Structure formats: structure tokens, C-alpha cells
Amino acid sequence: MSIEDLDQTARTLVAAGKGILAIDESGPTLARRFAEVGLANSEANRRAYRELLVTAPGLAASISGVALSDETIRQSTRDGVPFARYLADQGILAGIKVDKGTQPLAGCPGEVVTEGLDGLRQRLEEYRRLGARFAKWRAVVRIGEGIPTGTCIESNNHALARFAALAQEQGLVPVVEPEVLMDGDHDIDTSHEVHEVVLRSLFDALYQQDVMLDAVLLKASMVLPGSDCDETAGVDEVAATTLACIRATVPAIVPGIVFLSGGQDGERATAHLDALNRMGPHPWVLSFSYGRALQSAALHAWAQDPAGNADKAQDAVVRRARANALAAQGRWAA
Ligand code: 13P
């Protein structure tokens, strides 16, 4: 696959008024989400829930790509159509989460490093055959007493860059996700400082690994005060601080930045994205790759009555997607 094709795929993912639906939760994370709403974590339930989301009527009007997990990309609709093919038929690109989750980082108490580079070339090759056109890798950075350390930031960014280079080699657009967690009592200025250091180091690492920046998407966390911080921040303050941070760190050649919701309330995540876009024009497209902020209402509705509430649940995810598609253009009205 040539750079033109990859570049085209990246631009398709951030086409005007479209964003990514992330349904690529790992087994343990989905088990936790199911437990919260009283659903049994069976293979049948996981498949049925993912089918509900993937086949929601009207999804393609606001969703350009759906990120899947290893289990989901191998599953099919009840009529036997593989999810990746079903999505492609709707004009939606299938993506795949390829990291293997986090492990404690040796020598750095309280910090983690994302694993999954071993055998990655072969796995990417297989995922492409299964229909994936983009791939995602998530690194996790915690803010706390004396953390993050440079060791944590650099180890994670090195892995992100190795992943990105391999994904491009195999014809998949890498979505690089260095998530700075909201957990903690830090203020927004601390979050800003950490995000700047993390993003600068990330782009250094991508440069060192010869990653083509016009065929990469950055999946970033917004700059927010910690969830236990006494001071709150208004929508415009979050948007202005996030914007100052990405302006200082993300090269203009990167086609798009898709934000994660990171546990923000769904409406709030939409309001922040909308405010960011109202502060444009920007050199990159600013859109979304939300998991919880798009799925929460749908999951709750479905859990209440899987047979009776399927339409209601599908309507809920499409409505959240539509609101965020407007916010991606700065045209959302609360
Ligand atoms: P949230 O939007 O729920 O944070 O999930 C996004 C995601 O895909 C994390 O990797």
C-alpha cells in the first residue's frame, strides 16, 4: 500500500462531520462495563451487543470508522456477515486495537507500559486480511506524586512509534493514543504540563522511527483537571487549554486529532469538542474517537431489556454520534 492510500484512509477517517466509534474494549474492560449494568459476560452477549452497535441504522452518517477488538473482528452478524464486511458495505472503515494492554513498568512504581510489539507484524498482516484499515495502540500515563517519570513517557512513546511504523508498513493507518488519565487530584495546569511533555516526546519518537506523519491520527486526551481536583474548569477553559497544548506540540501535517472521552460525561465530551472547533480554523481536523461517551446510554438501555430495547439502544448510539458529528464542525447546540 502506498503513502497516498494511507493518507487517503486517514483523511476518510476524519472527513468533515465524521468520527470514530470505539467498541474495542478488552475482555476485562467489557466485563466490567457489563457487570455495572448487570449483564452476563458471555461470548453470546458480547457478540450481540457489538452487533447492536455495528448495525445501528443511520450510523454511517456520522461515523467514519469503528474500532474493533481481536474477538469482535472475528465475529459476524447473526446472518453470518463478518462485522468488518458489514461495516465496509455501509462505507465505514473497520479498525483494530492491537496492543495487549498494560503491565507494571519495572523500576517505576505506580506506572505502566503497554505491551504487544512481539509478533505484531504478523498480527497486522492478518488483521488487514480480515478487513481492518486502521489500527490503534493505547499508552497510559498517570499523574501523581512524582509521576509520570521520563522513563514511563519515553518507554511508552517508543512502543507507540514502533507500532505506528509497523502499521504503516502493513498498510494500516496508525491511531496513536497516549492517554493521560483524568484520575487524581491534580489541577488543569498540571495536566497541561504533562500533556505537553508527553506529546513532544511522542512526536520525537515518531520522527525517529520514520513514521509518515500525514498518515497518522493522534488519539489524544483532553486537558482536564483531575477527577478528584477541588477546582473545576469550564468548557471554554478546557477547550482553550487543550488547544494551546496541541498547537505547541502537534505538527500541522498530521491530518487529524480524534479525542477520547476518558470517562467524561457524554454531553460534556460533546461540549468540549464543539468549543474546540468553534475556536478554529485549525491545521488539523479535530474530531472524536469516543467509547463510553457514545455507548453509555445505549448500553444502559440494552441491559434493561435486550430484546425489547434494541431499537431504543441503537437510537441512543446514533443520537450521540450525530451530536458529536455536529461538534466536530463546531455546530452543536446543547
Ligand atoms: P473512552 O472514550 O471511553 O475513553 O474510550 C476511548 C478508547 O477507545 C480508549 O482506548
UniProtKB/TrEMBL annotation:
Substrates-to-products reaction catalysed = beta-D-fructose 1,6-bisphosphate = D-glyceraldehyde 3-phosphate + dihydroxyacetone phosphate
* Top-level lineage group: Bacteria
Protein name stated in the entry: Probable fructose-bisphosphate aldolase class 1
Which InterPro entries does this entry report, sorted A to Z?
Aldolase_TIM, FBA_I
Listed SUPFAM superfamilies: Aldolase
Q: What is its EC number?
A: 4.1.2.13
The biological pathway it contributes to is: Carbohydrate degradation; glycolysis; D-glyceraldehyde 3-phosphate and glycerone phosphate from D-glucose: step 4/4
Any Pfam family = Glycolytic
Sorted alphabetically, the keyword list is: Glycolysis, Lyase
A biological process (GO) of this protein is:
glycolytic process
Q: Which GO terms describe its molecular function?
A: fructose-bisphosphate aldolase activity
Record has Lyase as a keyword: yes
The Swiss-Prot or TrEMBL record describes its family as follows: Belongs to the class I fructose-bisphosphate aldolase family.
